[in-house]
Design a protein that fits this description.
This protein is α/β, with parallel strands linked by helices and 323 residues long. 34% of the residues lie in helices and 27% in strands. The chain has 9 helices and 14 strands. The strands form 2 sheets. An 8-stranded mixed sheet has the order 8-9-10-7-11-12-13-14, covered by helices on one side. It has a 6-stranded parallel sheet with strand order 3-2-1-4-5-6, with helices on both faces. α1 (13-22) packs across α8, α4 runs parallel beside α5 and α7 (171-187) crosses α9. The radius of gyration is 19 Å and the shape is globular.
Length: 323
């Protein structure tokens, strides 16, 4: 089996975690890296290997099969389209685009080129999440009708990109995307969104709440940067409920409480930071000549960003260039 050869655009914090995961996936190789700061990419390559490229064009001309886009959200769609047009499969960090219209432009190119494009949404690939879904097939909690989830992290430095308006910061975009995934995954497509948000001095939402109606029920979600939230998730069905303990987006433990009084504990530790499972899934899709993930499908990505579009519209957060 020939190794799948990876290039990385953006050498910040998430790229370091990504390479930690990549090293755990057989049949992969880090070949080339590029970042807007020459010193950043030189340091990254010195630590992890691969070639330090001096331009994005040099990276895209390298002998690579896949580009992982680890830049900040303001440039996700730009680099996705460049990579797809260069004939490379793309795994792009979340959120994959600023809004639904831009995401559709990316997906149109992916479809035209017949290449795999997937948004990086890690929770469903963790062993705990997959084991939980498998367990419920034989011991179900009945139809799920309610999801409650959220995260608010009060200790982020104020110079973090999450606070930057120009870099597509804000709690809805940076944290709410995870909650959107969970609600859609368990309740189906979104029908209605109601949202409230509080803004900070940099022009982004620092705390937002949004409740949503879906095909199969309701969700209550929150995201923030200035309060200390719990970070767990509750999933309720007619025969029981599930608590995915904090931090639910890096899931390792869940408790199922059944209506008949039974309690089931599921513990499933993860390794290498957890991105290795997402990477392994992506690589398998390429080897199967797939152009879309059945788990983080193009429709899932559209549903997630559409939910956030509506939530942002209701709290009044528009980014530069949006109508």
């Amino acid at each position: 089996m020939n190794p799948l050869r990876w290039g990385i655009i953006g050498c910040g914090r998430i790229a370091h975690r990504f390479v930690q995961g990549l090293r755990e996936v057989p049949g992969t190789e880090l070949v080339a890296c590029w970042s807007r700061g020459a010193e950043t990419v030189d340091s990254f390559v010195e630590h992890y290997g691969g070639k330090a490229c001096r331009s994005v064009d040099e990276l895209l001309l390298s002998d690579i099969d896949i580009v992982y886009i680890a830049t900040l959200p303001d440039s996700h769609s730009l680099y996705s389209i460049l990579a797809l047009n260069a004939g490379k499969h793309v795994l792009c960090e979340k959120p994959a685009a600023t809004n639904l219209s831009i995401l559709n432009s990316v997906l149109e190119v992916a479809n035209e080129k017949g290449l795999l494009f997937m948004e990086g949404m890690k929770p469903p690939f963790f062993p705990l999440y997959q084991r939980l879904k498998e367990y419920l097939l034989t011991d179900p909690i009945g139809p799920v009708g309610y999801v409650r989830a959220g995260s608010s992290v009060a200790d982020i430095s104020r110079d973090h990109p999450n606070f930057s308006y120009d870099l597509i910061g804000g709690s809805i975009m940076q944290i709410g995307i995870y909650e959107a995934f969970l609600a859609i995954d368990w309740l189906g497509n979104t029908k209605k969104v109601q949202a409230l948000g509080r803004f900070g001095e940099t022009g982004i939402d620092v705390f937002s709440i949004f409740q949503t109606e879906h095909e199969n029920g309701y969700a209550q979600l929150y995201s923030g940067f200035d309060l200390h939230g719990k970070g767990d998730a509750l999933i309720c069905g007619t025969l029981g409920n599930i608590t995915i303990h904090k931090n639910w987006w890096n899931p390792a433990r869940a408790t199922i409480d059944y209506l008949d009084g039974r309690t089931v504990e599921i513990d499933e530790p993860f390794t290498a930071g957890g991105l290795n499972y997402e990477i392994a899934h992506f690589c398998e899709l390429i080897r199967q000549h797939k152009t879309e993930s059945p788990i983080i499908s193009h429709n899932m990505s559209r549903q997630m960003i559409a939910m956030l579009d509506e939530a942002r519209a209701q709290v009044g957060l528009k980014y530069r260039g949006e109508l």
